[in-house]
Specification:
about 280 residues, mainly alpha, 10 helices, globular
Length: about 280
């Protein structure tokens, strides 16, 4: 493959991962119907999640795993089996503990970084979604790049497409939930709501990873290959449904935060028009 061809393939992979994430961001932003944040700050938050949070999370996770491996070698006791990288149980330690705790913390730092731009509580989950979708975009691009190197362009695009309707949405929705809690604590009701919503984000992330790893769970139970393949497909389907449900919930939270109590009246509530002095109300 020529250098030009390799650059073209790289550009295709980047765009294939970027466009869906930006489409999801526009969709979430539209949930704030009267005073949505400007695209400049939102794209800044997106870039923070894509570059800084992703990069630092990868370093932190690598250090944690290296430390865990060192502990398992120094103390080869059964209770430290999950820290041994050669043990199949180490995968669950990574996907259920290390990745959710580390990645949600780094994404949350992006919400805190841009919290000075919040004008009302509804901005918190929108900015959170932007940071999370940026993180999901770049992580998905890296996974797609790995698939491309192993199996070609089609394999890379296929993996990016799958992750764009699952992992990317999940990253956006979990950080959106933290953003809501942090905004409530900062400019809303006050208190430590950000901490509780961080734990919610970690729990959502871990639950999603468990669904996506269903095939591995079946393999550890010693079942056959056919059962493993079926479990993998079922797990993928459930993970996609979970991701869409989570982002849909995030959008409803944004709408309720913008007009508290309005959704209980009607789901398509619109704020009343502002009347100027001396202008009669419109006829009905």
């Amino acid at each position: 493959m020529s250098d030009l061809g390799a650059l073209q393939d790289l550009a295709i992979l980047i765009l294939a991962a970027l466009f869906p994430a930006l489409i999801w961001l526009a969709w979430v932003r539209s949930s704030e119907r009267t005073d949505a944040p400007g695209w400049g700050p939102l794209l800044g938050a997106f870039a923070y999640g894509a570059l800084f949070a992703t990069f630092i999370a990868a370093i932190a996770e690598g250090l944690i795993l290296a430390g865990g491996a060192a502990v398992s070698q120094s103390y080869p006791a059964p209770e430290f089996t999950f820290l041994n990288p050669t043990s199949p149980w180490s995968l669950f330690f990574v996907v259920l503990v290390v990745a959710p705790v580390t990645e949600e913390a780094l994404k949350a730092s992006g919400v805190v970084r841009y919290s000075d731009t919040f004008r009302h509580v509804a901005d918190g989950p929108v900015f959170g979604a932007s940071v999370g979708l940026g993180f999901g975009f770049f992580e998905t691009f890296l996974y797609g790049l790995g698939a491309f190197l192993a199996g070609g362009l089609i394999a890379g695009i296929a993996l990016i497409a799958i992750r764009s309707v699952s992992s990317v949405l999940l990253h956006g929705s979990t950080t959106s939930m933290f953003g809501y809690g942090y905004a409530e604590g900062k400019i809303g009701r006050g208190g430590w709501t950000g901490a509780s919503y961080y734990l919610l984000a970690v729990g959502m992330h871990a639950s999603f990873n468990l669904l996506a790893s269903l095939g591995t769970v079946v393999a550890l139970l010693g079942l056959g290959t056919n059962d493993q393949n079926l479990a993998s497909l079922v797990g993928l389907g459930l993970a996609v449904l979970y991701a869409f449900a989570a982002i849909g919930h995030a959008r409803s939270v944004i709408q309720r935060a913008e007009f508290p109590g309005a959704q209980a009246v009607h789901p398509r509530f619109r704020p009343p028009p502002v009347r100027r002095a001396g202008v009669p109300p419109p006829r009905r």
